[in-house]
Write a structure and sequence with these properties.
- Two copies of one chain form a homodimer.
- The first copy, chain A, is α/β, with parallel strands linked by helices and 428 residues long.
- Chain A is 40% helix and 25% strand.
- Chain A is built from 15 helices and 18 strands.
- In chain A, the strands form four sheets. Chain A has a six-stranded mixed sheet, with helices on both faces. In chain A, strands 14-13-15-16-17-18 form a six-stranded mixed sheet, with helices on both faces. A four-stranded antiparallel sheet of chain A has the order 10-11-9-12.
- In chain A, strand 7 and strand 8 form a beta hairpin.
- In chain A, helix 10 packs parallel to helix 15.
- The longest helix of chain A has 20 residues.
- Chain A starts with a strand and ends with a strand.
- At the A-B interface, helix 2, strand 2, helix 3, helix 8 and strand 10 of A face helix 1, helix 2, strand 2, helix 3 and helix 6 of B.
């Protein structure tokens, strides 16, 4: 089964609202093994709606339509669907009763426009909406199923799960399953990962097994898809590719859980190793600590941090000698190492991690350009500094620096030799 | 001028990524008086891309295409645009040089697929991308302008603002104008702002003047629209409404600049008052300092912060007596005040701000439920604590707490009596 999504509303088109409905529906349909073809947003224009319904029908067995079902004059979805399917509006009594009862319960008088919500095309099957006043509608036009749902996300999701999916499942029957496997990586670029590390895998992309590279802020997630008559069969098909990737690029993979991120994976590693960490931050301004504490329960492995944004505070709070700042500068191997050591010491943590760099957009020199960052790592077993060169954008540099710091610790604690983006390491 | 947006990528279609690019572009084009017709997402399929390019051309003078420009095999936008416009791929030397130089600078070998990024159709004008390796492209096909941009949001936005808009402005000329005025508020909910503070304004919504409430993480932005033959005429029409809103809700408005946020507005206030700040964080884990340092030049007003996530560190690093922690707890007025005072003292800052609360999802009690946060404010002139009750979600609680801390300081430094969300204040 192939599906398109048609979201209706000027507010979506002009970006006043971000189209999270389309993303949710895309995920929902894909997880239910329905192939997504296209997702279209149009304004409250009958001509545009009709045109896209016709055009999407040519490539889709199913069109999910959301939005434009409100009681105001600019909501035209219902009238458009009535005329598109050759029907006329009639009153749906259960919906009318539900609306009246609800308004009575809240002690608010029912207005005529509220009652208009109970009008539906006589060509549809009503999908009763217990979460709001606009009912869902199910049409069959030629070979295509058209489903119209309210644009309010909670109502749309409720109807999709409770009303639409059971009816779809009936139509699809049970023929086969789609298996997905995710490999989340950090500290490696998409092209390095694909060309240099994983290499040619055309011989492994057989029997319907596919591999996609999805770039995220934390790095690149690889998604392997396969299909089969059973979950076991689909799973078995991915095994050779999975083993190849783990062997070639295992050091970059921080998680194979479906829904995961680097701070959570780092937290699990710290829990497993029973270690605690503290951060001495400069260019990240607190972001590294914030990322660590995004994870529930992080008080078990995170003690705290000292952000010394000013040089004087590097001396006063983190004991970086003025002579070191004078000789090597705040953005240097020496400063990074002392910051890491001192924060570990002062907070009684197993690991001290530090960041000091030039976030930009200004403040760079030829010798120390914008985007240059030094990291310090200090534990009882190992002390080292690492140098990285990021870009011009301040927010991106902060984000990258915080994530690279987490990945650096992950690698150091997992005895992985290579560092994020193969950055050079200076052991002391 | 009428525009459509075509976003390309399976990851968008199946909802792995939410399509924020389409929303940003919709807003950008609307603000620049270009009418949005349609926004379409298709997967990495040449047939779908070509079909939608043809179909959108019929109703659009401009099509903005994003995504599918990466170096891997599933990125097919460039080849598709080359064949659609009757061109062939050639190397763009400045882009190649830029790529090589960038990889050299970072000490990473250039892979063949990186160099493929410098290939462009000979039918396009290259929009040079200083923020990444994939260049933007400008085509004219029959009567329609096609603009292809990378899918990475920061690169897309940069090219749109710096390269695409100047070229579009040339084409459009000026006939009539749409004026927009933004009022960014913090520390007030949408319904309180609209119903209780601003009240009935129907008599001011005349002559085509409209008011929209746009909720953001920082609070609510109000957008006033009006049209006229000239910018002056459109502007003049909004004056009565603007004056009414400023009079009724002025204390919540932190900025009236088009593109702004609370950290930047706070930074301007600090610069204007020549003040410095330091943060003592607990439940925000570093996020408050990170938000402050998102602003370029923040080293002028931000000295640093101490995050004492563990109680022992509140004593050791911030001198909160064990007896205070025992008697009142870490989440208390007393602890918040000492944290604020101590961080100001230790960092030599004019203002100390503190956050201590229960971020959740666990750790709450009947007396101190999840979402409870105490703030401390300490300056030479004024010391006070403030209590707020947020919700159950950890990430939202951290975000809200950091933003309320900024708004609290904005109000205190601007002699505004009311606090964010009318939270209770305890002066000492």
């Amino acid at each position: 089964m192939r599906a398109s999504i048609l979201t209706i509303g000027n507010e979506l088109l002009i970006g006043d609202i971000i189209n999270t409905n389309a993303a949710w529906l895309g995920t929902f349909l894909t997880l239910h093994h329905i192939e997504m073809v296209r997702s279209v947003t149009v304004g409250d224009s009958e001509a545009e709606i009709v045109h896209m319904l016709k055009d999407c029908s040519k490539v889709s067995d199913l069109i999910i339509i959301t939005g434009g079902l409100g009681p105001t004059h600019d909501d035209i979805t219902k009238h458009t669907l009535a005329s598109f399917t050759g029907g006329k509006l009639i009153e749906h009594t259960p919906t009318r009763d539900f609306i009246v009862k609800n308004f009575e319960k809240r002690g608010i008088p029912v207005s005529p426009s509220n009652l208009l919500q109970a009008q539906v095309p006589d060509t549809c099957e009503v999908l009763f909406n217990t979460h709001g006043t606009a009912p869902g509608m199910w049409f069959k036009k030629d070979d295509t199923i058209l489903v119209s749902l309210p644009g309010v996300p909670s109502e749309m999701k409720h109807l999709m799960e409770k009303e639409v999916w059971p009816k779809l499942a009936e139509q699809i029957g049970a023929n086969g399953t789609l298996y997905r496997h995710y490999l989340h990586t950090a500290g490696v670029g998409e092209s390095t990962l694909s060309d240099l590390e994983i290499g040619d895998i055309s011989h492994l992309l057989v029997n319907g097994v596919t591999l996609a590279f999805l770039p995220h802020t934390h790095g690149v997630t690889m998604r392997i898809n396969s299909t089969g008559k059973s979950d076991e069969e689909a799973r078995a098909k991915t095994k050779p590719l999975l083993e190849h990737i783990r062997k070639k690029a295992g050091q970059h993979i921080f998680s194979e859980l479906y829904d995961d991120d680097l701070p959570r994976a780092f937290g699990r590693l710290m829990t497993e190793k029973k270690l605690t960490v503290a951060a001495a931050e400069s260019c990240t301004g607190g972001l590294l600590g914030s990322k660590i504490t995004d994870v529930p329960g992080s008080s078990r492995w995170y003690n705290g941090s000292i952000t010394a944004y000013q040089n004087e505070l590097k001396t006063k709070l983190l004991n970086v000698p003025e002579s070191v700042l004078k000789a090597h500068g705040a953005v240097s191997k020496e400063t990074a190492l002392i910051m890491a050591r001192e924060v570990a010491k002062q907070t009684g943590s197993d690991i001290g991690i530090s960041t000091t760099g030039i976030a930009g957009p200004d403040g760079g020199t030829d010798e120390k350009p914008v985007g240059l960052v030094w990291f310090g790592f200090w534990s009882a077993e190992r002390h080292f500094a690492m140098k990285a060169q990021f870009f011009k954008n301040r927010i991106t540099n902060k984000e990258r620096t915080a994530l690279v710091a987490l990945d650096l610790m992950r690698r150091a604690l997992s005895d992985i030799e290579s560092m994020p983006y193969n950055a050079p390491v200076f052991n002391v």
